[in-house]
Structures are given as structure tokens and as C-alpha cells.
Amino acid sequence: MRPSYLLPLAGLLLSSLIPGQLCKICEVSKENYSDLKPLLSTMVNSKYTRGIQAANILLSLKLVGIQNQSLEHQLTQWIQEDMERKGSNLTSGQLALIILAQKACKNTSEVFIRDVDLVKTLEEKFRAEIGNMEIHNGNPLTNYYQLSLDVLALCLFSGNYAVTEIVDHFAPDNKNYYLGGHFSVDTGAMAVLALTCVQRSIMSGKIEADEKDLNKINHYRESLVNKTLSEEKDGLFGNTYSTGEAMQALFVSSNYFENEQNCQKTLHTVLRNVSQGAFRMPIAAAQILPALMGKTYLDVNNHSACAHSPDFNISSDDPVSVTPTVSPSNITVNYYVQINETQPISVTVKNGSVFLDVMEAAQKKNRTLFCFTTVDSSWGPYVISVQGIQANNNDRTYWELLSNGKPLSQGAGSYVVKDGDNLGVRWAKY
Ligand code: B12
Ligand SMILES: *[C@@H]1O[C@H](CO)[C@@H](O)[C@H](O)[C@H]1NC(C)=O
Ligand SMILES: *[C@@H]1O[C@H](CO)[C@@H](O)[C@H](O)[C@H]1NC(C)=O
Ligand SMILES: *[C@@H]1O[C@H](CO)[C@@H](O)[C@H](O)[C@H]1NC(C)=O
Ligand SMILES: *[C@@H]1O[C@H](CO)[C@@H](O)[C@H](O)[C@H]1NC(C)=O
Ligand SMILES: *[C@@H]1O[C@H](CO)[C@@H](O)[C@H](O)[C@H]1NC(C)=O
Ligand SMILES: *[C@@H]1O[C@H](CO)[C@@H](O)[C@H](O)[C@H]1NC(C)=O
Ligand SMILES: *[C@@H]1O[C@H](CO)[C@@H](O)[C@H](O)[C@H]1NC(C)=O
Ligand SMILES: *[C@@H]1O[C@H](CO)[C@@H](O)[C@H](O)[C@H]1NC(C)=O
Ligand SMILES: *[C@@H]1O[C@H](CO)[C@@H](O)[C@H](O)[C@H]1NC(C)=O
Ligand SMILES: *[C@@H]1O[C@H](CO)[C@@H](O)[C@H](O)[C@H]1NC(C)=O
Ligand SMILES: *[C@@H]1O[C@H](CO)[C@@H](O)[C@H](O)[C@H]1NC(C)=O
Ligand SMILES: *[C@@H]1O[C@H](CO)[C@@H](O)[C@H](O)[C@H]1NC(C)=O
């Protein structure tokens, strides 16, 4: 252990960002924990939990201190199976999540040799991300949300990484923080968590860095927090689904929630979203729950934060909100594929259908124009190709989903279409 940097840097700290402990947490009070039950029952009862989704859920349950050995065992099993199925195709961020989930809230004495191997593999995958950026115009194999998860896991679980490399790649003007020209709050928040971890490691002497780099990291955090705060609306940051991660970032890097009104506004809106069924997807529930209970991903190796279990009960007989049922009536919607030109079609589907049903109906009518493929992901089916044209991270291309000209904030498998909707998929760059 190197000498602590705390003393010489105390002055610097006071004049800039506090490293975390002094920041204000904004959480649901114990007497209102029953508002969180829909989230828990979604997570506990999801029979279709698979792969990386299971890692998100395990991480979340451990962080909030819910102990259910049979559930943990089942989730671990799913994670193991997914790892075997994907093999070397597991992405860096998926591996980082698995490491976070498996090692969260564990005594160091319980750490297995296999875990050490996983961290080594993550180091290699992180290197490959950086390597890809060097030959593909600054584009990583995946995205900066995942690179941030990588740094977070490496930082928390004693992996190797170079502070100078973090400083080079995580500057707030890096294009990878932006998707479709817009600051990605999820991505920025994950980066703040990672950078905060790195900064704490420097402060405690766990990793070496010069003062210039420490200052830069601090500045990056502040700037990313500013960008996150400028995306605030009705107490949400970005949208409903980025707010949990944004809250975590604000807990460790800002005094925003010292203002009680800010806190109440955010909790109020999020809890209303919960009651409206916005977090019906297990992964969405898993991403919002820790923040609502005052936890962050930086707590995974903080025993005092992990040890407490909440004094409320989860039970599998709590009602799970179900997706709207398909009704016997039919609705008609417009659908189009936009590449350089727009190819429209009108299709009739059952009332209550999702976007994907519309795509399938169109495909049935004309395969040449409307054929498409999807891959399974933690958020449901991800549209990877349309008309044989495939999304590619090296070119930052993807298929954007739109309704009445506006990008959807849900996927093809979840967005319920309405009569007369004008739906489209657009070949786009992020
Ligand atoms: C990076 C990212 C993208 C990239 C993905 C490509 C890339 N370069 O990696 C781009 C910009 C292309 C993208 C597109 C979309 N995204 Co996106 N994306 C993310 C982000 C920031 C990180 C995902 C990630 O890497 N996770 C970590 C890894 C370890 O998990 P993973 O499951 O292996 O990740 C893969 C999937 O998440 C998939 N993916 C990414 N976005 C989406 C969205 C949906 C609906 C699905 C099914 C899959 C999917 O790509 C990831 C990499 O392969 C998340 C934020 C979050 N909180 O998760 C949003 C997020 C998942 N995306 C979201 C949305 C809405 C979309 C779009 C539907 C937007 C649109 N209107 O077109 C499209 C997907 C359309 C389609 N073709 O099916 C929402 C989903 C919310 C919800 N309730 O469903 C999120 C949560 C952002 C938000 N706060 O709104 N996304
Ligand atoms: C519990 O939630 C209600 C609104 O649902 C709110 O008025 C009340 O202040 C909350 N209690 C605490 C202690 O925060
Ligand atoms: C624990 O998880 C299992 C699923 O693995 C579930 O059936 C059971 O109800 C859970 N127990 C409690 C107390 O919630
Ligand atoms: C990894 O992906 C490649 C290309 O998609 C595929 O050919 C290969 O079979 C995959 N490997 C595994 C272990 O799934
Ligand atoms: C870690 O192990 C010690 C000694 O066995 C025990 O007292 C402590 O409660 C454990 N902590 C956690 C978080 O399990
Ligand atoms: C962040 O915002 C605060 C308040 O608006 C401002 O004083 C500060 O300079 C900003 N910091 C960065 C790095 O942009
Ligand atoms: C969450 O609540 C806000 C504010 O009421 C609303 O604008 C938004 O549409 C809701 N999100 C979802 C997914 O229901
Ligand atoms: C660890 O968790 C406890 C309890 O939640 C908290 O008071 C403390 O500040 C945390 N420590 C760090 C370094 O985050
Ligand atoms: C949780 O369940 C236990 C036993 O079933 C019961 O004694 C306790 O009062 C319950 N706690 C709450 C907060 O409902
Ligand atoms: C809805 O459409 C299907 C298939 O086109 C058709 O068989 C069915 O009769 C229609 N139902 C109603 C209520 O119009
Ligand atoms: C769209 O048009 C541009 C310029 O006319 C052309 O280079 C490109 O190949 C076209 N893209 C597709 C997918 O047809
Ligand atoms: C579709 O169903 C919803 C409720 O499920 C209903 O409000 C709406 O009127 C229905 N639309 C048509 C065209 O049947
Ligand atoms: C599909 O659309 C293309 C282009 O408009 C057309 O040439 C073709 O005949 C259509 N196929 C069917 C089965 O309608």
C-alpha cells in the first residue's frame, strides 16, 4: 500500500468536488417501501430472466440487501449458462456486469480463483475496446456505457488499468458520450461512477497518479454532472430509464439532492412511473431500485452498505403488472422503412400489438422491402437488420425506431402501438 494522498490533496478537495461520502443521498423512506413492491415482484418473479439481465438483477438484489438464496442460486445458474453460450463473444460490459454481480457484497475471503481469472479477462476485453477505437475512428467495439462498466469493475476489484488512459479517453467532449447527437445520460452517469471510483483509489493510495491527472478526473466528473443536470425534467434525468443511474451518479458526485425539494420531485415522479407500470421489464426495475434505496454501484464492496437488509418482505404472491392484453378488435397503422428513400405500407394488427408485431405484419406482405432480424438482449429484441442492411458499431450505424416522427424510448418488443400511429424504422447514425 502506497502512502495516502489524502493529506497533500486535502486543499484541492475542498475547492472542488467532494469524493462522495459527504454527498447527499435521496432515497425512499422506510414507511414508503411498499411503493417499491412492484419493482421487487417484477424482479423476483421473472421466469424469463436470462443472461445479462440476470446479472443486472442479481447485482441489484444484493445491493439492496435482499437475501433469497434460492433466487440467488437460480440467477447465478442463468448467468453461468449465458457465459457458456456466448463464450468469447461476451462483450466487455457484459463481463463487467457479471463480475460486479458475482462479487457484490461478498467477503474477500469468499473470493474464488475463477473470479481472478474473470478480472484478467476483463482487462483484455477493455484493451480490445481501446484497440478498436484506435483503428476505427475512435469507435469502441461496444459503447462508453460498457467501457465505464469495465473501468468500474476493474477499479472496484483490483484489476489493472492506467490512470493516464482513463484521462485520455474519458474527457467529457468525447463523442462516445453522445448518441444521435444527444448527451446520453445513462452513459454519462456510468462514467461518473467509474471516474469517482478511480478518484477514490488515487486518494487512498491504491493506485498511483500525478496531481494533474487527478485534477482532470475531477473536472470530468463535474462536467458530466453538469450535463446530467441540464437534462433534468420533472425530476427525471434524461428519461425514466436513465434516472436510476443518474441518481447514483449524483449521490456520489454532487450536492444536488441536498435540496430536499429536488429529492422529493425526483422520488415523486419516479414512484408515479413505478405505479404506472413503467418498470415492467425486469432490467428496468433492476436499474432503478438501488438508487431508490440509497445505494450505488460503488457500494458493492462496502460491507457496511451491503450488510443491511431492508425490513420489508418480498413475496412471490405480490401482483405482477402484466403487459396489456391483446384484444379481439383490429387497428390500422402506417409503417415505413427509411433508408435513403421512404417505403411506406399500411398494416392491420390486433389492438394491443407491439411495434414488433407491426414489423412482422409488414414483412409478411412484402419480404423484399420489410424483412428484418433481431437479436435477443436484456431489454428484449434488438432490431439488428432491415432489408438486409445490418447495424455496425464501427460505423456507428443502427436502426432507429420512431413513432410519429419521434424516437421511441422503448424497444420493438415493448412499445404498444395505437390506431393510426405512423411508425418507422430509420437507418441512422448515432
Ligand atoms: C449504447 C446504447 C444504445 C446503442 C447500442 C449499440 C451500441 N453501440 O452499443 C444505440 C445507440 C444503437 C441504441 C439504440 C437504441 N436504444 Co439504447 N441504449 C444504449 C445504452 C446507453 C447502453 C446499452 C449497453 O451497452 N448496456 C450494457 C450491456 C452490458 O448490456 P447488453 O444488454 O448486452 O447491451 C446491449 C443491449 O442493451 C442493446 N440495446 C441498446 N439499446 C437497446 C434498446 C432496446 C430496446 C433493446 C431491445 C436493446 C438495446 O445494445 C447493447 C449493446 O449490444 C442503454 C442504457 C441502459 N440503461 O442500459 C440504452 C437503452 C437500453 N436504449 C434504449 C432505447 C429506447 C433504444 C432505442 C429503441 C432508441 C430508438 N428510438 O431507436 C434503440 C434500439 C432500436 C433497435 N434497433 O432495436 C433505452 C431502453 C428503454 C426501454 N424501456 O426499453 C435505454 C435504457 C436508454 C434510455 N434511458 O432510454 N442504444
Ligand atoms: C411517503 O410518500 C408520500 C406520498 O406518497 C409522501 O407525501 C410522504 O412525504 C412520504 N414519506 C416520507 C417520510 O418521505
Ligand atoms: C425466493 O425466490 C424464489 C424464486 O427463486 C421465489 O419462488 C420465492 O418466493 C422467493 N422467496 C421469497 C421469500 O420471496
Ligand atoms: C461468436 O460470434 C461469431 C460471429 O457472430 C459466431 O460465428 C460464433 O459462432 C460465435 N461464437 C460463440 C461461441 O457463440
Ligand atoms: C465477513 O466475514 C466476517 C467473519 O466471518 C463476518 O463477521 C462478517 O459478517 C462477514 N461480512 C459479510 C458482509 O458477510
Ligand atoms: C458546472 O456548473 C457549475 C454551476 O453552473 C459551474 O460553476 C462550473 O464551472 C461547471 N463546471 C464544469 C466543469 O463545467
Ligand atoms: C414518467 O413520468 C413523467 C412525468 O409524469 C412522464 O412524462 C413520463 O412519460 C413517465 N414515463 C413513463 C415511461 O411512463
Ligand atoms: C459505505 O456504506 C455506509 C452505509 O451505507 C456509508 O455510510 C459509507 O459512507 C460507505 N462508504 C463509502 C466509502 O462509500
Ligand atoms: C415480514 O414477515 C415476517 C414473518 O412473515 C413478519 O413477522 C414481519 O412483520 C413482516 N415485516 C413486514 C415489514 O411486513
Ligand atoms: C382482425 O383481422 C384478422 C386478420 O386480418 C381477421 O381474421 C379478423 O376477422 C379481424 N377481426 C375483426 C374484429 O375485425
Ligand atoms: C444512400 O445514398 C447515398 C448517396 O446517394 C449512397 O452513397 C448510399 O449508398 C445510399 N445508401 C443506401 C443504404 O442505399
Ligand atoms: C384498443 O384498446 C383500447 C384499450 O385496450 C381501447 O381504449 C381502444 O378504444 C381500442 N381501440 C380500438 C380501435 O379498438
Ligand atoms: C415488394 O415491393 C417491391 C418494390 O415495390 C415490388 O417490386 C415487389 O413486387 C413487391 N413484392 C410483393 C410480394 O408485393
From TrEMBL:
Positions that bind cyanocob(III)alamin: 142-146, 186, 239, 287, 382-383, 399-401, 408, 430
Pfam family membership, one: Cobalamin_bind
Transcobalamin-like C-terminal domain location: 352-427
GO biological-process terms attached to the record: cobalamin transport; cobalt ion transport
Record's GO cellular component terms: extracellular space
Stored InterPro entries: Cbl-bd_prot, Cobalamin_Transport, Transcobalamin-like_C
Cellular location(s): Secreted
Disulfide bond positions: 26-263, 105-306, 155-197
GO MF, one annotated term: cobalamin binding
Entry keyword set: Cobalt, Cobalt transport, Disulfide bond, Ion transport, Secreted, Signal, Transport
The family this protein is said to belong to: Belongs to the eukaryotic cobalamin transport proteins family.
Protein name as it appears in the record: Transcobalamin-1
Organism for this UniProt entry: Vicugna pacos (Alpaca)
Higher taxonomy: Eukaryota, Metazoa, Chordata, Craniata, Vertebrata
